[in-house]
Amino acid sequence: MGKKLLTGYLVFCIVFFVALISITAIRVKTRWDHNYTSTKRRFDQLSKVSSSLYLSAQSFGSETFLSEIRKKIAEEPRLLLVAIYTKADGLFYLFSKNQDYLKSSDRITAQWKGNPSYQNQPAGSAVISAPLLESSEERLFLDGLYVIFGKSDLFPILKETFIVLFVFFIATCIVLLIIPAGGPVAGRPTTESRRDQPRRADGLSRRAAPHPPHTLPEPATELGDETEDKRTHRRDSVQLFSPDTGLGWSDHLPQRIKFEIDRAAATDQDLILALISLDNHGSIPNADAVYAKIAGMLLEEFTFQDLAFEYREGSYALILPDTDLDTGISRLELFQNRITSGQDLRTTITLCVGLSSRNGRLVNGATLLTESSNALKRAQSQGKGSLIAFRADPEKYRDFVSKKT
Predict the structure, then answer these.
(1) Measured between alpha carbons, how far apart are the two ends of the chain, in Å?
(2) Beta bridge partners of 102
(3) Deepest of 4, 184, 341, 368, by most Cβ within 10 A of its Cβ?
(4) Which range has the worst mean pLDDT, 70-74, 108-112, 143-147?
(5) Distance between CA atoms of residues 125 and 78, nearest Å
(6) Residues 6 or more apart from 178 whose CB is under 8 A from it?
(7) Which domains does the chain show, CATH number per domain?
(8) Could you give the CA distance from residue 325 to residue 271 in angstroms, rounded to a whole number?
């Protein structure tokens, strides 16, 4: 019996690993497709802005074009390279976060002709190209090198996969400990071994004890129950998003803030934590439905599901990586105006917002959350639809920390 269970469980393990690998691959492909679609939409916006600026300035070297295109590029954390060129005259404009992305033979020189070629592209990146401007004299092209699937996209998927593998490993250890209980009891001969024993000298065969043997527990029932419990626990442990809103659970917010702060500090980038609350949430008709609707709009506006969380009753938390405070204020004000307009909700709703940023500080998640929470309370005290941002001075903060230590 134990051998049959072990064989069956081995088959189950094979099916499980094939299914897990397939699901992980599908999730990676789905995330890639989603990111590529979003990136292509932002690239089209960049193309329109570039065309407009060139037609206005009539030169790629003008201060107006350079300053405005740099602002647009700064809003795209996934953008690694921008090139504007013609096949006849070569490069007119080039921006690259790493000069090795463009081959050395493609530097801007008077002799350079043809399409630029790229090398040393990071894993998960792709080049998007489109005509920028057409006329009778020249045809301009715009190339953009984007990170489509980066570490921030891969790590959450791998984390959930490893959680499932760990739970499965624990369940496997328990199964291996239980299965031997279904075999023969040590020191007690089986029926077959008793039949094969020699007769005694007096002609009488060995007989079993007159009382009935003790009934052993059936391991199959216990194994089935315990495996089902483990499966339920495994499903619960990897469910990271609320089924009602699609946002992350508030319990996962502190850990995610810490991860994003460490990542931002390692790359010397800024980061914003924003807390958003519905004004008079308790008096809103169908408050739960409105809360879920705004959550969906939040995901549409800020794209990344794993950086938006349910917070407290009628509130949301949003992490904006590689975003400075002024840019974050502008984006959140636009979102406030979209909600207040009532076009999507068919009712008048106002939001209060409190936010804070890393701003070059070695700050922890608890401090950033406290600053944003205090800013939200201040916004709520000022009235409906208010936005308050906590702007820290990095020099004063470092002096404070050094004196405190």
Answers:
(1) 65
(2) 118
(3) 368
(4) 108-112
(5) 9
(6) 219, 222, 223, 226
(7) 1-184+218-239 (no CATH), 250-404 (3.30.70.270)
(8) 8
Burial of 259 (0-12, 13-18, 19+ CB in 10 A): middle
Q: Residue 369 corresponds to which tokens in the numbers above? A: 């959350």
Residue where the block lists tokens 């916004």: 379
Cα–Cα dist 259/248, whole Å: 15
> What does R_g of the chain's alpha carbons equal in angstroms?
32
Tokens standing for 291?
Answer: 């809360």
One DSSP character per residue, 101-112 reads GB-GGGSS-TT-
Q: Measure the CA–CA gap between 345 and 293, rounded to whole angstroms.
A: 8
- pLDDT level of residue 218 (50, 70, 90 thresholds): very low
Residues contacting 404, CB < 8 A, separation 6+: none
Residue 321 is predicted with a pLDDT of: 92
Band (pLDDT 50/70/90 cuts) for residue 223 is very low
Structure tokens at 89: 């005259």
Q: What confidence category does residue 376 fall into, taking pLDDT thresholds of 50, 70 and 90? A: very high
Tens-place pLDDT, residues 347-365: 788 999 999 998 888 889 9
Element (H, E) at 240: none
Handedness of CA 338, 339, 343, 348 (dihedral sign): negative
Residue identified by tokens 């008793």 is 194
Token duo for residue 230: 């483990």
